[in-house]
Amino acid sequence: xxxxxxxxxxxxxxxxxxxxxxxxxxxxxxxxxxxxxxxxxxxxxxxxxxxxxxxxxxxxxxxxxxxxxxxxxxxxxxxxxxxxxxxxxxxxxxxxxxxxxxxxxxxxxxxxxxxxxxxxxxxxxxxxxxxxxxxxxxxxxxxxxxxxxxxxxxxxxxxxxxxxxxxxxxxxxxxxxxxxxxxxxxxxxxxxxxxxxxxxxxxxxxxxxxxxxxxxxxxxxxxxxxxxxxxxxxxxxxxxxxxxxxxxxxxxxxxxxxxxxxxxxxxxxxxxxxxxxxxxxxxxxxxxxxxxxxxxxxxxxxxxxxxxxxxxxxxxxxxxxxxxxxxxxxxxxxxxxxxxxxxxxxxxxxxxxxxxxxxxxxxxxxxxxxxxxxxxxxxxxxxxxxxxxxxxxxxxxxxxxxxxxxxxxxxxxxxxxxxxxxxxxxxxxxxxxxxxxxxxxxxxxxxxxxxxxxxxxxxxxxxxxxxxxxxxxxxxxxxxxxxxxxxxxx
Amino acid sequence: xxxxxxxxxxxxxxxxxxxxxxxxxxxxxxxxxxxxxxxxxxxxxxxxxxxxxxxxxxxxxxxxxxxxxxxxxxxxxxxxxxxxxxxxxxxxxxxxxxxxxxxxxxxxxxxxxxxxxxxxxxxxxxxxxxxxxxxxxxxxxxxxxxxxxxxxxxxxxxxxxxxxxxxxxxxxxxxxxxxxxxxxxxxxxxxxxxxxxxxxxxxxxxxxxxxxxxxxxxxxxxxxxxxxxxxxxxxxxxxxxxxxxxxxxxxxxxxxxxxxxxxxxxxxxxxxxxxxxxxxxxxxxxxxxxxxxxxxxxxxxxxxxxxxxx
Lengths: 490, 310
What we know:
The structure holds 2 protein chains of 2 kinds.
Chain A: H1 40-43, H2 63-83, H3 94-101, H4 104-120, H5 122-145, H6 151-163, H7 170-196, H8 204-219, H9 234-257, H10 261-281, H11 283-286, E1 299-302, E2 305-308, H12 313-336, H13 338-348, H14 350-355, H15 360-385, H16 395-408, H17 413-429, H18 439-453, H19 462-472
Antiparallel strand pairs in A: 1-2
Helix pairs in contact in A: 2-3, 2-4, 7-12, 7-15, 7-16, 7-17, 8-9, 8-10, 8-15, 9-10, 9-15, 12-13, 13-15, 16-17, 16-18
Chain B: H1 3-35, H2 42-60, H3 70-105, H4 110-132, E1 147-151, E2 154-157, H5 158-180, H6 182-192, H7 194-199, H8 204-229, H9 238-251, H10 256-276, H11 282-296, H12 306-309
């Protein structure tokens, strides 16, 4: 983590081009607009500027600059420790010492200095970068600017999604289903809660677990000690899991959302842990830590169509693509509907929304329930795809879904799917290089860095980005975490 | 053995654990009072302080695994507390610098703070797991004579007596600090109305940092006490963290004395409940208490607001 606390080396936070460069930009009077990552400032004429009067070696050694360098060097040391050897409790500081004494430290410190130089010369570089990237970004940006959707771009992405699994290994295909596909679906659901309603759900995976265990209950006599007296086809479990998860969401959300949005975060956190605890301990209901084994695969036998999904990941992958695309379209329509506009109103100003007749509590509950039901739905898919045990529903998995949504861009449907692809792709790529448990160090760092430098995410939703910007200028809000205006209970 | 036979033992255990919850809860309550934010990474401050104190104390123990006992043990506890508090304070300071301050500088929306704190927490937990291993680390019982005295048939060990005494001393110390010093006045002023406090010449930035550090010092020292009784592990922070938060809400979040009361009460409820139901579901009780308070009396037993109550 350890992003520079003060020097504001963020994108666009650099001193303007030209003469302004001698003034260290550390005053708090920095106009918030300059944090805008799309950075019109970069292209605004550094190239056209005159003889760059600020260019004197002394510029490099202002206190602010040196401080920036110091912070970057610290980050370098931290990066060396994070990627260094694993320690143990007998010699608690040994691993850190070894990391610092290693030759690699030179590489990290070198990188830190290089990054500093880039930041110092940032204005110039940004201009150049802007010129290079503009022709690429413009059409994409323009396509997304149009209402009604960037059809061509979406079709290209869909085509890539369809072809991609055919060119990778089976292990990668498995990962594309279990990790990317399922998490894309989960992220789309959580996006309704975090992105649309501006709430935070930290126990999101609990609903996923509800979906998975419901599937085991209804579809198999052997998967868990506790099972239904009859056996259902997994497809019939989808609606049941959807309703159960939504119901759990409402039960959890109703007392909490009445009060303050941020209480929801901690209550869901506790709930997630309890579901995990119960799943792990209730041996005679859920089969405890051994997990549920033998949930049947999905199958259709209807109107002459007889098809069974099996161990081959591809059919599941295409099913997931269909579901994810369907959910994206549905949520796109939801976002632009009366309900979606209510959510936007709640995010931006909850009191005003309440005053103009938006049923804020009900709308927040609705978002929470919709998010939960998507998670339950994904749980059914997950359970019928593969063996699962309580490990699959740990707290970290919940945090990971949050990381995906934040990284991709809250409120942006394409963003969260891209977030799932990038983060899970990264995890897949790192699977042999980094111990699996260590991956969460990186995910944690990604979350903090994104919040500091790019809170709107990788592929931001335009509306969300604007909201964050305005909120930072003190106009409105960008979430609904404050005291609920429904009153009464206070 | 019936519940009544065990009553006093459960009460003593509950009070001991509860006093630790109270110490941790203060960190939530102070930060909440000043920033109106739940500091999600506080549990990691607790974890880091706990490791710091534990490793310091273990480093001073003789190699043969024996325990000095007597005054030397008191010294060990003091060292552990001190190092734990310093580690906790440093962790809280770093946390504020890295995960909160950059966001505050540009007055980010509240969601951003919560998410950033979660990221920091995830980072800290797993880095600690990597550096210190992922097993439990424990400390031998530092005092030779197990039981000091019996109280209605319940044994009070030296260790639990020390823990309770230190925790209560910290609680009283903090209460005096907030209620009676100039610094405390500043904290209360910021909690009441940060904008007005600025106009009155309070350095809000400084107060915020100091508040984080005080919370961190307490959590770090509390972490060492916790590790003395149970053990330390990289993931130890989460459960006591949620419980301490529950304690803070139970007493009225933002209210210093409320957090103390809430912590002790929660410790008792959990101790009785864990006996009456099943010990492995002990953690569920705290959560049910949290949901119940939110439904019945969301402002807590003593009411919210740091500024007013202290």
